[in-house]
Each structure stands twice: as structure tokens, then as C-alpha cells.
């Protein structure tokens, strides 16, 4: 009898425990991913990574756990006032949640920037009071009284507001749109040029592009420009200039000049803008990118990161402006660093053209290149790399932390030294 029980016991235990094994790995894995992403302690991160590797699951499973590692709680619909960190201070931000908001689904987002002397609350109300308002979007509207969003502090408030909203609400990070009125329109151009991989599309209203020479960065960021013909504060020529530059680049742009509109928020255009927004999704893994910058503060676009600039690139903290706050033309910037990258799928190659860059890091994913085959990289016509790229878990987790993006996942990277002309 005891011998029979001895034989049956392992079998019974297997039947009772085996359904839980997969569940345990799943819950443990998700917990470890969440622990790594939420920690700033190196030892804690190292332990979490070691345990993740020990689970011996696929890279795809790790990506799945990363994508679903965030958890959200139900929130009351309506307007919420939030405080977000801005250095040692706090900045004000208003968030509008739709009447049927639920954390169980992803929501498209409009980042709305006010003009000089305005407020985040006022900018949200301008959208909500429109007869064409569609209750399908989360609105995020920071307050920065001066409206000089291109300043270092103004930029920090915007990025902090986005990061806070990513933590609190179930945003669709592939559908983050940006709109701004007057100096808020300036800010829309500025932020999109500096961080093109954040946005699906933009809507500058009655604004002027402060960095028109860098509009090349908006290859994958469609623009819907609105400007009043009778605007005497920011003349309509500002819209026409940005539109013509984007058209010459063959980028996606719409420019609506409203004949009777002065320097006003276009209440009757909001419905058309929101409908257009939803026709655009962020390009997460573009096979071709162009990025230029005159400042070492701005070094990342999509899957390319400038890790060392040439000695000629000077660091700047904002855009020059005159006393009234109007932006000065950017042609005075002496030197620009640039990278153009294109993936040639047929040969599993990456072609790079660089200017004023010493070193570069490329983040890679299966959506970009075939990692089962050797990859070849050419820089300024010279072949500098040929070999296979190995995926690893740490790169996925570290790139998510660095870019605060749980949708664009990179499983490998390669660091490149740009050869000099005489090499």
C-alpha cells in the first residue's frame, strides 16, 4: 500500500502543480520587469535582471511583459489639476479625462500649449467649449505663464507633464498629438523638432517656427498648420514659410489660412483637427530617418543617438529671442550636427551619412533589421561593420527606461565610431 502511494504521489503533485508553473513564471516575470523599470538602485536592477535571465524565456516574452508592465487605476472623468516636478520646483498641469474614460483601453492624447499669459486650464476649456469637440481624447495642458515653451524651464514642464500622464493614465503612446496657440504654436514646432519620435502629428496655430532650418527632423511627423490671414500679432507669412519648407522636403503638411481670423483660437476648426489627428499614428520603427541639431542637449531621434559631437557643436539652452519674446531667425546658428540613416532591407544594410559627429549608437529591433543574418553598416560610403547582432534583455529594459517608452522596444544596440575623412 505504501509502495503504491509512493509511486502515485509524484504524479498527483505534478497534476496539481503543473498548471501553476506557467502562471508563476508569468507573474514572476512581470513583477521582475516592473521592479527593474521602477528602480534606480543598481544592485536591485542587477538582481532583477539576473532572475529574469534565469527564467529562460524568449525575448518576445520579455517584450510582452514590458508592454504590459504598467498598471492603472480607475479615474474620475473631467478636469484634474496636477503638480509635476520641474527641477526643485513644481509645475502646474491640467488633464482632461473623457466622460467614459476607462483604464482598460488605450486613449489618444492631445498635448495643448497655451499662449503668453494663458493657462493650461484655459487651453483645455478652449477645446472643450468648441461645438465640434469629440470626447475621445485625453487632453494634457501644462501652465507656463510666460508661454515661452522653448526655454529650458518651459520644455521641462512639458516633458514632465507627459511623463506624469504616462504613469497615471493608459495613454496610447502611438497617438500623442500636440497643438498650441500663438507662442504655444511656437512651442509645438520647437518640441516636435527636438523630440520627433514622441509625436504622431502636430497642429501649430498662429505660431512661428523658431527652428525652420531644422524642419528636416519632421519626416515622420505630419503637420496641420492653421493661421488667420488677418493676424497682426504673428503674420500669416510665418505659416506660409513653414508650409513651403515642408512641401519642398515632400513631407506631409496641410496649411489652412482662415480669411477672417485674427490672432484667435480657431473654435470652428477643432473637430476637423481631431479627425485629422486620428488618421495619423506614430512611426515607431522608421526605415529612414533624418535628424539635425545644433545643441548637444538634443541627441536622440527614433533609433539613432549621437553619443559624441564634434568639438565645433556648441551647447545651447534655448533659442535666442528679442525683448518682446519673439523668436529670432535660426540662420545665425554656426554649426549643425546631422545624421541621415536608411535601412536597406534587401541586403540587411544600414547606410549612414553624418556631419559633425564623432560617435553614434544605433538601437536595433526585429522590426528594423533581420537579426538572424549578418548586418552591414556603411558610414559616409565606408563599410565599418559586418556581423551578427545579438539580442539581450538588458538592452530592452535600459532603452525603455532611457526613452520612457514601453511601445518602441529595442533588443540590441551597436556603438559606432565615425571614420575621419583621411581614414
Automatic annotation (TrEMBL):
Protein's UniProt keywords contain Signal: yes
Residues in Phospholipase/carboxylesterase/thioesterase domain copies: 162-273
Gene Ontology terms, MF aspect: hydrolase activity
Keyword Transit peptide: no
Domain of life assignment: Bacteria
UniProt keyword annotations, A-Z: Hydrolase, Signal
Pfam families the UniProt entry points to: Abhydrolase_2
InterPro entries documented for this protein: AB_hydrolase_fold, Plant_Biomass_Hydrol_Est, PLipase/COase/thioEstase
Protein's name according to its UniProt entry: Phospholipase/carboxylesterase/thioesterase domain-containing protein
Amino acid at each position: 500500500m505504501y509502495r503504491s502511494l509512493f509511486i502515485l504521489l509524484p504524479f498527483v503533485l505534478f497534476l496539481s502543480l503543473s498548471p501553476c508553473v506557467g502562471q508563476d513564471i508569468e507573474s514572476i516575470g512581470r513583477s521582475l520587469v516592473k521592479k527593474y523599470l521602477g528602480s534606480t538602485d543598481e544592485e536591485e536592477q542587477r538582481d532583477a535582471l539576473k532572475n529574469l535571465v534565469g527564467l529562460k524565456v524568449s525575448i518576445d516574452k520579455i517584450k510582452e511583459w514590458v508592454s504590459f508592465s504598467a498598471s492603472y487605476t480607475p479615474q474620475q472623468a473631467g478636469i484634474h489639476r496636477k503638480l509635476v516636478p520641474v527641477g526643485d520646483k513644481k509645475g502646474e498641469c491640467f488633464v482632461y479625462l473623457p466622460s467614459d474614460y476607462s483604464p482598460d483601453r488605450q486613449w489618444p492624447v492631445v498635448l495643448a500649449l497655451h499662449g503668453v499669459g494663458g493657462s493650461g486650464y484655459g487651453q483645455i476649456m478652449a477645446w472643450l467649449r468648441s461645438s465640434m469637440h469629440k470626447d475621445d481624447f485625453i487632453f494634457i495642458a501644462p501652465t507656463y505663464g510666460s508661454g515661452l515653451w522653448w526655454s529650458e524651464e518651459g520644455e521641462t514642464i512639458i516633458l514632465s507633464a507627459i511623463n506624469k500622464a504616462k504613469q497615471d493614465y493608459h495613454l496610447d503612446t502611438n497617438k500623442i498629438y500636440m497643438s498650441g496657440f500663438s507662442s504655444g504654436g511656437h512651442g509645438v514646432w520647437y518640441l516636435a523638432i527636438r523630440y520627433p519620435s514622441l509625436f504622431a502629428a502636430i497642429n501649430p496655430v498662429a505660431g512661428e517656427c523658431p527652428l525652420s532650418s531644422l524642419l528636416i527632423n519632421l519626416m515622420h511627423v505630419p503637420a496641420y498648420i492653421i493661421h488667420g490671414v488677418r493676424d497682426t500679432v504673428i503674420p500669416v507669412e510665418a505659416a506660409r514659410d513653414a508650409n513651403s519648407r515642408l512641401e519642398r522636403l515632400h513631407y506631409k503638411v496641410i496649411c489652412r489660412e482662415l480669411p477672417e481670423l485674427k490672432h484667435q483660437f480657431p473654435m470652428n476648426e477643432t473637430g476637423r483637427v481631431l479627425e485629422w489627428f486620428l488618421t495619423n499614428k506614430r512611426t515607431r520603427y522608421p526605415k529612414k530617418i533624418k535628424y539635425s541639431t545644433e545643441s548637444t542637449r538634443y541627441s536622440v531621434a527614433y533609433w539613432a543617438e549621437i553619443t559624441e559631437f564634434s568639438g565645433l557643436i556648441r551647447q545651447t539652452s534655448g533659442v535666442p529671442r528679442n525683448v518682446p519674446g519673439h523668436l529670432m531667425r535660426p540662420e545665425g546658428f554656426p554649426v549643425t550636427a546631422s545624421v541621415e540613416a536608411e535601412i536597406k532591407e534587401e541586403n540587411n544594410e544600414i547606410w549612414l551619412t553624418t556631419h559633425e559627429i564623432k560617435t553614434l549608437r544605433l538601437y536595433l529591433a526585429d522590426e528594423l533589421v533581420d537579426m538572424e543574418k549578418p548586418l552591414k553598416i556603411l558610414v559616409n560610403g565606408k563599410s565599418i561593420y559586418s556581423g551578427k547582432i545579438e539580442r539581450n534583455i538588458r538592452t530592452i529594459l535600459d532603452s525603455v527606461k532611457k526613452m520612457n517608452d514601453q511601445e518602441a522596444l529595442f533588443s540590441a544596440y551597436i556603438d559606432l565610431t565615425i571614420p575621419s575623412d583621411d581614414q
